[in-house]
Design goal:
387 residues, alpha/beta, Purple Acid Phosphatase, chain A, domain 2, ten-stranded mixed beta sheet, seven-stranded mixed beta sheet, 7 helices, 19 strands, globular
């Protein structure tokens, strides 16, 4: 039986909701090395998640009569706080995010958690004689560092979410929930949080079976269409694209890495916005990529490396540059402003504010090159406007 969109959904949502089976509840070419544009430092001038998952709420702020109130969302790229047992930050990781805490502040703070928070489950994916195999984990209590930094929702849809098997994945969810942190990324999982009286649905996608599919665009679109019936705003977290220092460019077509299909970032992102997404937050290549607007919605194709505690991620050159994306959206999904703040990973992999704005400079140049007509525009302070 098909039903019309629930009351209160804005017109764009209502159109998308028609034909959605509301009784079916959801359960719980490639870049070439050496062709990057040249840039020099200084050139910048209620939830359907797993049982027990928290649903953060906030008190709505007063808004002048007749004015559509916007909410601010911040997001980062890849987060690894350390690699137990021998490559953990000093002091048990206390103060790990102190340098960037103010930059993260928003009504909803999101990050891509690129490692399980678990004890050793005995099911690590890398064998004793493995080569080019990387597995990560941090102690479950490190979820407290995410909470203390201001994070409220973490994405698990990435290639390291299952580094310690299903038990490690579940342990991560429990660790996050213990510190009142929401999570998203499991198959058919849509996590709804309420911020400033606005409902935000977040779903995570990757090319791995433990997440919503990045490769099956029809299935992914169905998840986003469902999310659009559940909330005012829809955010897609997606781990997509090849990896490496030379993978900063965005071009149409499927990207492969080590024989894996890492999706078609442009096709996927546009399709998700057509399905009802209001913001696309990309990560996965371990480097920053450009940003564009499509149908008035912002796509950040990769936010790069944010944290690599214990030197678990390379901080060599552009691999060490990341940033904080902050976007303000009105309840109808329209863009109300944004900014990009440059960070870098210091000598021990901690995220650190970057006074040289290297990340901003790179993102501006890549955006101009890859999206000359649709690209976002950045001023010298990192403020984002639609071109």
């Amino acid at each position: 039986m098909y039903a019309a969109a629930p009351s209160g959904i804005r017109p764009r949502r209502a159109a998308l909701a028609l034909g959605v089976l509301l009784t079916a509840l959801l359960a719980a070419g490639c870049a070439q090395p050496g062709d990057d544009p040249v840039w020099q430092p200084g050139a910048a001038g209620g939830s359907t998640s797993a049982p027990g998952a928290p649903t953060p709420t906030r008190t709505p702020a007063a808004t002048p009569e007749g004015e559509a109130k916007s909410v601010s969302l911040s997001a980062t790229g890849d987060i690894i706080m350390g690699n137990a047992p021998n490559r953990l930050p000093p002091g048990g990781g206390k103060g790990f995010f102190d340098s960037v805490k103010d930059a993260l502040a928003a009504d909803l703070v999101m990050g891509n958690l690129e490692e399980p928070l678990t004890v050793d489950t005995g099911t690590g994916k890398c064998g004793a004689n493995s080569t080019r195999c990387f597995q990560f984990r941090a102690p479950p209590e490190y979820a407290a560092h995410l909470r203390d930094a201001g994070f409220e929702l973490l994405n698990q849809a990435n290639n390291h979410g299952y580094d310690y098997g299903p038990k490690g994945y579940q342990n991560t969810q429990r660790a996050l929930e213990k510190y009142d942190l929401a999570h998203t990324g499991a198959p058919d999982q849509i996590t709804v949080v309420e911020v400033e009286g606005v409902k935000v649905a977040v779903a995570g996608f990757s090319s791995y079976v433990w997440s919503n599919s990045l490769v099956d665009i029809d299935a992914a679109s169905a998840v986003v269409k469902k999310a659009a019936t559940m909330a005012d705003l829809v955010v897609v977290q997606v781990h997509m694209g090849g990896e490496g220092a030379d993978k900063t460019r965005v071009r149409p077509g499927t990207e492969m890495f080590l024989g894996e299909n890492r999706g078609d970032p442009v096709k996927f992102s546009h399709a998700m916005i057509d399905a009802g997404a209001d913001l696309i937050v990309g990560h996965g290549p371990h480097v920053l990529r450009g940003m564009e607007f499509y149908q008035g919605r912002l796509i950040a194709y990769s936010l790069g490396n944010f944290a690599g505690g214990g030197n678990s991620l390379s901080n060599n050159g552009r691999l060490g540059w990341g940033g904080v994306l902050k976007v303000s959206l009105k309840p109808d999904g329209s863009f109300a402003g944004g900014s990009f703040t440059s960070t870098y990973m210091n000598s021990i992999g901690k995220p650190t504010m970057d006074p040289d704005d290297r990340g901003l400079g790179l993102v501006r140049q890549l955006t101009r090159t890859d999206f000359p007509k649709t690209g976002a525009r950045f001023d010298d302070q990192g403020r984002i406007t639609e071109g």
